[in-house]
Structures are given as C-alpha cells and as structure tokens.
Amino acid sequence: MSIALYNPVSGDGSATQFFSDHVLPLLDKHNKSPALFAPTEHPGHAAELVASFLSAHPDSERVTVIVGSGDGTVHEIVNGVASLSSGKRDIELVLVPLGTANALYASLFPPSSSPQDPTSYRLLALHSFLASSSPRLLALAETSLASTTIYSAVVTSTALHASILHDSEALRKDMPGIERFKVAAHQNITRWYNASVVLRPPKPDGSVQVYDPATKSLIPYGKDAKLQGPFAYFLSTVNVDRLEPLFRITPLFSSIPPPPSTPSLDIAILRPLRDPAVSSAAQDDREIFAQKAGRVLGEAYNNGAHVNLRYAEDRQPVTDGDGEAVVEYFRCGGFEWIPDESDDRAHLLCADGAIFNIPPSGRTTCSAVASTRNGVRFSVYSQHLT
Ligand SMILES: Nc1ncnc2c1ncn2[C@@H]1O[C@H](COP(=O)(O)OP(=O)(O)OP(=O)(O)O)[C@@H](O)[C@H]1O
C-alpha cells in the first residue's frame, strides 16, 4: 500500500507542479496510484497525514510513503510515526527531492560530475521503487531531551551548526535558497560553546573509533572518550555523508561505510584549543580560529577534504601536515552533550533542521538505533542496480 505527499512550500515551491507534471503520471503509467495523495497544508501536517493513514490501516505492516519535500518534512514523518502507539511497521520512503538541502537524497544519489537533467535526477528514487528494488534500511539518531524523544534521519548537532539553523530560519523569507545558511554561518563563526561530551561505543558491541589522517583509516580511540570544550563545531550524522549536494561534512560514511547491521553516528568536531596558535578564549584568538574554521569547513565542499587537514609547523591547517588532526572525526554509537549552565547558546540542539533547547542544568543523549521505540523501521529507495 502506498501514499503520496508533497510539501508545496519546500525549496523553491515547485512541488505542486512537479507532482502533477511528473510523479503522478509515472505512478499512473505503472498502475501504482497511491491510496492517499495530498499536499501538506501546514507545519506538522505530513506527520498527521501519515499517522492517521497508519491508524486507519492497522494491519498494513509495510507502507510506502512517496514524499516530495526536503529533509524537514521527512523528519516530521519519522517523528509522527514514532509517537504512534501501534506496534511494528516497515515504512518505505520514496524521496522526491524538492526541498532546499535534500541531504538524505543527495547522499543516496550523489550528484555526478557530468551534467544531469534535473527532472530525471529528482525521479531516481521513484524509478527505483517502480522497478521493485529493495529499499535500504535507515539508521535513526534517537535523542533524549528532558522527557522528550526526538528522532533524526540526517543530522543531530549543537554548537555552530545549531546556531546557524537557529538564525537562518529568520532569514528564510528573504533567502529561500541555501544562501541563508552561509549568511547565518558568518554571523556565528567566532562563537565558542562551553560543554563537555562523552562518546559511547556502538551497540551491541564495538568501540569508539577515530579517524587517523596519517593512515586514512578509522582506528580504535584509545583515550578516555570524554572530550572537554570549548567547542566551535559539533555535528553528528546518520545515513548521510553530506548536508547539501556538495557539502560532504562526514565523508567517511560513504568512503569507509559502517556495517549496515550496527547503527552508528559519524561525528565531526572542531575544538579551538587544539589549535597550537590559540591559547585562550580572548577575542583575538577567536578571530584567528574563526578564519581557520571557515577555511576548514569550506574544505567539506572540496569532496570532504577537511578530514585530512593537520596542523603544520607554522600552525596552519594543511593536507600534508604532520601535526594533530584539525577536525576530530569519530564513529560511535552515541554521545552525551553536557552544556555549561552559563552558556545559553550551548543549549541549542538541531535535529534535522528543527531547533530544540536543552533545559537549564540539563544535558542530552543521542544514540544510533535501528528502529523507533514503538517498533517502526524506516527504509529508503536508493540506487537501482540493473
Ligand atoms: N503548507 C505548508 N505551509 C507552511 N509550511 C509548511 C507547509 N507544509 C509543510 N510545511 C513546513 O515546511 C518546512 C520545510 O519543509 P521541507 O523540509 O520539506 O523543505 P526545506 O526546508 O526547503 O528543505 P530541507 O529540509 O531539505 O532544507 C517543514 O518544517 C514543514 O513543517
């Protein structure tokens, strides 16, 4: 059984047209007309539509949801289904990337270097579904925040990334494209976040791993898995190696893929006090580090080259340096983020673009899981191998 939803305001607002011109005719042609077809009418509506469809069809264990949107709408669907009381379900997502960033889709279907027809590119997952491929299981990042549980299918972050998402929402009306993220990044680049982090190994067994740029491999993290701030950047992903088509912030997810049977998080961290040129939190040191952080994160657009940067003797980040890694890159089962009570900004948490506040004196834990607590598994249609 399948349903089809689209968000008419996601991305550049072209979903209505795209569904009537391309998606519905294709479904009709293959005799796969959905049991429900609807635009979302307000924030949260996608979750309501899927949840009420599932409640009305308690015996449908496997339901396909064709969704024309960005990552935010997918996030709403995952969390809406996770809050249902009914038991085990398999939800298969057919993504039609019509949002701004489309991180999940761009990771499943990395843009190729040769020119690609944009319409055909957006229909790749739908064709995979129509060709009866097997969908790929998604991991979820399960975050506990006070008494709330939040699931992310793409990113869970604090520090700079959460600040960017928090501030960029105010810019959405004037800047509907990804440009608003760059403006918000500029506004926040000198900020540091006081917190500590504990990294947890993957379940049921495994160890916290760290990327070693010298050997270009993930190795067991021998040290104490507690990291002391301040942090400039702290971002974890599941299922993706990028947050935009070309911003490969966690490239090892695709270049050294984790075993599909063990859900894990890839985490990229920048801690300013690891920079040999930075000795205090004074404004001068923040400016010095901000310039480097901007350059280092910019290397994520260079096919994820930031993970191989190391401090050179002149304290600059370079690819052939022999000092410490500039970016700390971990693969683990989860983390605990403990913000300093006095640092309000360190209390911001981003889950797939949605912003949450960690309560005063609170902390948050995030773990990679294979299904929601109520027993729902999600999968996505990806490359169709012929
Ligand atoms: N009819 C509607 N009017 C206003 N907002 C809506 C409507 N339908 C859905 N939304 C909201 O639009 C938000 C953005 O949606 P979506 O994630 O699909 O696109 P995006 O933000 O452009 O893309 P991405 O998340 O990939 O950057 C969602 O959080 C959702 O709550």
List the helices and strands and how they pair.
Elements: E1 2-6, H1 15-29, E2 36-39, H2 45-56, E3 62-69, H3 71-82, E4 89-97, H4 103-108, H5 118-122, H6 124-130, E5 136-137, E6 140-145, E7 148-152, E8 155-158, H7 159-168, H8 179-188, E9 195-200, E10 209-212, E11 217-220, E12 226-228, E13 233-237, H9 252-255, E14 265-270, H10 283-298, E15 310-311, E16 317-318, E17 328-332, E18 334-339, E19 348-351, E20 354-357, E21 364-369, E22 376-380
Parallel strand pairs: 1-2, 1-3, 3-4, 4-22
Antiparallel strand pairs: 5-22, 6-7, 6-21, 8-13, 8-19, 9-12, 9-18, 10-11, 10-17, 13-14, 14-17, 15-16, 18-21, 19-20
Helix pairs in contact: 2-3, 7-8
Bound molecules: adenosine-5'-triphosphate.
Q: Can you tag this structure with a few keywords?
A:
386 residues, alpha+beta, Rossmann fold, Tumour Suppressor Smad4, 2 domains, 6-stranded mixed sheet, 10 helices, 25% helix, binds adenosine-5'-triphosphate, Diacylglycerol_kinase_cat_dom, lipid kinase activity
